[in-house]
Amino acid sequence: MNIILVGPPGAGKGTQARHLVETRNMIQLSTGDMLREARDSGSEMGQVVADVMARGDLVTDEIVIGLIRERLEGDKKGGFIFDGFPRTLAQAVALGELLESVGEKLDAVIELRVRDEALVARITGRSTCGNCGEVYHDVTAPQPADGKCAICGASDFKRRADDNETSLMNRLMEYYKKTSPLLGYYFAHGLLKRVDGLADIKVVQASIAAALDN
Ligand code: AMP
User: Fold this and answer.
1) Confidence band of 140 (pLDDT split at 50, 70, 90)
2) Residues 120, 168: Cα–Cα separation, whole Å
3) What's the angle, vertex CA 67, arms to CA 3 and CA 102, rounded to 5?
4) CA dist 125 to 5, 46, 66, 121, 160, Å?
5) Which of 74, 83, 101, 200 is surrounded by the most beta carbons within 10 Å?
6) 157 φ, ψ to 5°?
7) Could you tell me the distance, in angstroms and rounded to a whole number, from the CA of residue 110 to the centre of ligand 1?
8) What is the C-alpha separation between 19 and 37, in angstroms, rounded?
9) Is 122 in the active site?
10) Which residue has the higher pLDDT, 121 or 61?
C-alpha cells in the first residue's frame, strides 16, 4: 500500500508516518528530512536549498522529484508513505508516473485537518530527538526531565531553524497557494480520505488505520 500524508506544517504528518513505519513496516519518504540531510552535509544541492528552506519557500520540483525517484527502487516493504511530498501539482503528476514506472500505484491520500490557529502553537514548541526522531513539544509532550529521549536515551534534542513564526507563516502561505489544490486533485481521483488531525495522537492513529483498512 502506497499512501500520501498531506496537511499544513505542524499537522502531525511526521509523527503519524513514524507510527505507520512501526506498525505496518512501511517506508517513510520525507522530502523535508532528505533536504535537511543534504543541507547539513553541505553538499552542493544542500547549499542551494538551505536559504530556500530557511525562508519557508518551496524547493524546485526538479530537486524533490529527483530525491523521490532515487528512493523508489529496491525493497518496497509494506509500501511507501510520502510525507511532505507531493507539494505541487507537477510533483503529484510526477509521482503518479514514477510509481507506474516501478509497477506501483497510489492507494490513498490522507489529509490531516488542523485549524490554522493550532498550528502556530504546535510548531513553535516543537523539538525532536536528533538520534531517533521522536517528536516532543514544550507544552503537550515535554522532553523528559533527565534530559534523555524516552525512546532511545540519547540527549541530542534539535529544534528546526524554520520552526519560527515568520517562516511558519510563509510555509503556511505556500501550503495554501501550491499544495492545497492537490486535495481537489486527489478527491477527483477517488483517493482522498480526511482525518481530524487535532484529536489525541492515538485517536488520529486509529482514524488513519480505519481509513486505510476500509
Ligand atoms: P517539511 O519538513 O516537510 O516541513 O519541509 C521543510 C522544507 O523543505 C519546506 O519548507 C521546503 O522548503 C522544503 N520541502 C520539503 N518537501 C518539499 C517538496 N515536496 N517540495 C518543495 N519543497 C519541499
Assistant:
1) confident
2) 7
3) 55
4) 22, 26, 32, 6, 10
5) 83
6) -85, 145
7) 18
8) 21
9) no
10) 61
Is the pLDDT at 64 greater than 90? The verdict is yes
What are the two backbone dihedrals, phi and then psi, of residue 77, each rounded to the nearest 5 degrees?
40, -130
- Does ligand 1 have an atom closer than 6 angstroms to the CB of 9? yes
Closest Cα to residue 111, out of 3, 1, 2, 5? 5
Phi and psi, residue 49, nearest 5°? -90, -15
Check if the beta carbon of residue 189 is closer than 8 Å to that of residue 99. no
Contact 175, 9 (CB under 8 A): yes
Amino acid at 177: K
The residues with which 136 forms a beta bridge, in sequence order, are: 127
Summarize pLDDT for 151-204 with one digit per residue, the tens.
Answer: 999 999 999 889 988 999 999 999 999 999 999 999 999 999 999 999 999 999
Tell me which residue has its CA closest to atom 14 in ligand 1: 32
